[in-house]
Amino acid sequence: MDQCSEQEVARLLPLVSNQRREQALRYQHTFGQFCCLKSYIMLCDLLAEWGRVHQLPINEQPTFLYNNYGAPYIEGGPYFSISHCKTGIAVAISENPIGIDIEAIRTFKPELMRKTMNLTEQQHIISSTNPDLEFIRLWTQKEAYLKLKGTGIISNLHNTLDHNPEITWKEIGNLPLKYVCTIVCNKY
C-alpha cells in the first residue's frame, strides 16, 4: 500500500481495460482508485500465469460480467475473488468457486458485533485475549464465504458460516501489518 499515490494511479490507468479504468475513476479518492487498478493488474498477472490472458492487448483484457447480486466473474472462468483494506490487497483464482476477504485489525464495536455475530461468536470474541483480532477473523470468514457463494452481504450475518467438509478454509494473519485474510474454496 506504500505505492498508493496520485502518480501511481496515473501510471496504472493506461495499463488496464476501459471497463476497469471507468470503474476506478468512479472512486472519489486516490486510495479507492489505486486499489481498484492494482487489484485488477494483480488479477491479470495471475490469469497470465494461469494461461488465460497472456499477451492480450489492453482492450482485450478480461471483461467482468456480473451475477444477479453484483458479484463479478469472467466468462469461461477461472473463478476469482478480490478484496482490499487499508493495509493490503488480496486476489485469488481457482478452478472452483472461491472467496477472499482481507481486513485491517481495528477496535471492534460492540454494536457491530451484535448485528453481525451470533451469540456463540459474540461469546468467543468477548472471552478472547484479543477481541479485536477475533472479531476480524470471524468477519473475514463470513465475507469470504459469502463471496464464495456469489451473494456478498445481502442479509442477516448471524448464521452465515457453514463449516462443511466440501469447503476449504485458509486464514493468513499478519499482526505486524495488522490484517487478517481468509480464503474459502469449494473442494470439488
Helix content range: 25-40%
Shape: globular
Order of helices and strands: HHHEEEEEHHHEE
The fold-level CATH name of the largest domain is: Ribosomal Protein L22, Chain A
**Relative strand content:** 15-25%
Looking at CATH, the homologous superfamily of the largest domain is: 4'-phosphopantetheinyl transferase domain
Quickly give the structural class: alpha+beta
State the helix count. 6
For the largest beta sheet, what order do the strands appear in spatially? 5-7-6
Radius of gyration: 17 Å
Mean model confidence by pLDDT: 88
The CATH architecture assignment of the largest domain turns out to be Alpha-Beta Complex
Could you explain how this protein is built, in words?
The chain has 2 domains: 1-63, no CATH class; 83-88 and 95-188, 4'-phosphopantetheinyl transferase domain (Ribosomal Protein L22, Chain A). The protein is built from 6 helices and 7 strands; from the N terminus they run H-H-H-E-E-E-E-E-H-H-H-E-E. It has helices at 6-12, 18-25, 30-50, 110-116, 119-127, 131-149; strands at 65-66, 72-73, 79-85, 88-94, 98-104, 167-174, 179-186. The protein has a 3-stranded antiparallel beta sheet, with helices on one face. Strands 1-2 form a two-stranded antiparallel ribbon. Strands 3-4 form a two-stranded antiparallel ribbon. A hairpin with a 5-residue loop joins strand 1 and strand 2. Helix 5 (119-127) packs antiparallel against helix 6. The protein is globular and about 50 Å long.
